[in-house]
Amino acid sequence: VQPLQRVKGTVDLLGEELRQFAHVETLLTQALLAEGYQALRPPLLEYTDLFARGVGEDTDIVGKEMFTFTRGDRQLTLRPEGTAGVVRAYIENGMHRWPKPVKVFYLGPMFRYERPQKGRQRQFHQLGVEVLGTDDPAADAGVMLTAWNLLHTLGVQGVQLHVNNVGTPEDRQRFKADFKALLADDLAVLCDDCRRRYETNPLRMLDCKVPTCEAHYASPKVQHFLANFAWEPASAEPYAQTLAILTALGIPYTQNPKLVRGLDYYTRTVFELTSTDPASGLGAQSTVCGGGRYNNLVETLGGPETPAVGFAFGLERLVTLANLGTLTPPPKVRVLSDDPAVAMRLAGQLREAHPTVVVEADWSTGKALGKQLKQAQQAQASHVVLAQQADVEADSLTLKTMTTGDQVKLTLNELLAQGCI
Ligand code: HAM
């Protein structure tokens, strides 16, 4: 029979990679809880409409990349990102009545039908942070500081913060109109996608990866327009305040007027964090974090007026970029006996007495001691405890250190005493 294969763009996380992953998740979770963020776990499945309305019909994510299917008469989608689901949960659970700002984080798989490559999967993981119910420009700087610190906690090298102002929705209409006027005579040199985006979502043109389009948007004419577009004070002022706070915090940033992000809900300040660490091999996928302010999303999804800001890390990229050194596994003890019930009972006592040690009971019935020892070695046990029924009755157990072969005889109480293993 031909063995079945996993779905393209997905991975089986296991072994050392999973250990690294879990370690990064633990470090980040602890750091966020310490900053007063609460965990939230929205479902992986949502009604398609949530993303169509939330992320935007004209984005690549909604237009091309969603895993969508029909059940009964409803269209369902495996979430391509976390923010829309958090906002739906915020409204549905009455979280707008909680003391503000509401600070939550979430962690889990996301699904996007993209071309798989290093740092880009169809099922990937995000760790996201959302702060709901504050319009203060300090909150934008605050979440950027959090993201910045988390990257440094993980030892990520060459971190760069890119920021931009994408204006208020009203202001963006003026930006789009001016931008379209600027490019009106250039459509012939642009790709089909850009010609379509020109009509539907002109800001997205700046994200085009087709070399001729990229070159066009890097031309002095376009660069000059982007760098000199005068946003209204409604977005320009809070954006400037956020930048001033970043400066006061000593966080270096680069203003990047081409930074438009791939989701339509953003208002005002947006940002991305990249790593220039060449050792990662991530190349174009070096954006490890993306986020920004989204002051209208809660209302768009039927909730009360609630300004908000947040970001998400791509965990696969984060694990690739993290420099945490090799993780030393905890000592592992295997309890061997000629009676499996004796082994299991003693293993339970040892676990209670030595909470940082991994304790396994040998589950075999009637297997020779030599074979049990061999299996313990293969399982990379650092110690074994020999507890034959007769040893237990005589209260004389043996602790063997596998690396050295050293053996000591101990009573049960000695074995349970601190520092014994
Ligand atoms: P995003 O920029 O679409 O933003 O995704 C955030 C991060 O997820 C990216 O910077 C990248 O590291 C990672 N990522 C995205 N797609 C893939 C993929 N196919 N494979 C591996 N990693 C990937 C959002 O999703 C927003 N919800 C962030 C946000 C939260 N904005 C406000 N609050």
- Rg on CA atoms, Å: 28 Å
Quaternary structure annotation: single chain
Total helical elements: 16
Shape: elongated
**Helical residue percent?**
25-40%
Spatial strand order of the main sheet: 1-5-6-11-10-9-7-8
Q: In what range is the share of β-strand residues?
A: 15-25%
Bound molecules: histidyl-adenosine monophosphate
Structure, explained:
With 421 residues, this protein is an alpha+beta fold. Helices cover 38% and strands 21% of the residues. The protein is built from 16 helices and 16 strands. The chain has helices spanning 15-34, 48-54, 60-64, 83-92, 137-153, 169-183, 192-200, 211-217, 220-228, 233-249, 297-300, 315-321, 340-353, 369-378, 389-393, 412-416, and strands spanning 38-39, 45-47, 67-71, 74-78, 102-111, 123-132, 159-165, 254-255, 269-275, 287-293, 308-314, 332-336, 358-361, 383-386, 397-401, 407-410. Strand 15 and strand 16 form a beta hairpin. Helix 1 packs across helix 12 (315-321) and helix 5 runs parallel beside helix 10 (233-249). The structure holds histidyl-adenosine monophosphate. The site of histidyl-adenosine monophosphate has 27 residues, from strand 6, strand 10, strand 11 and helix 12.
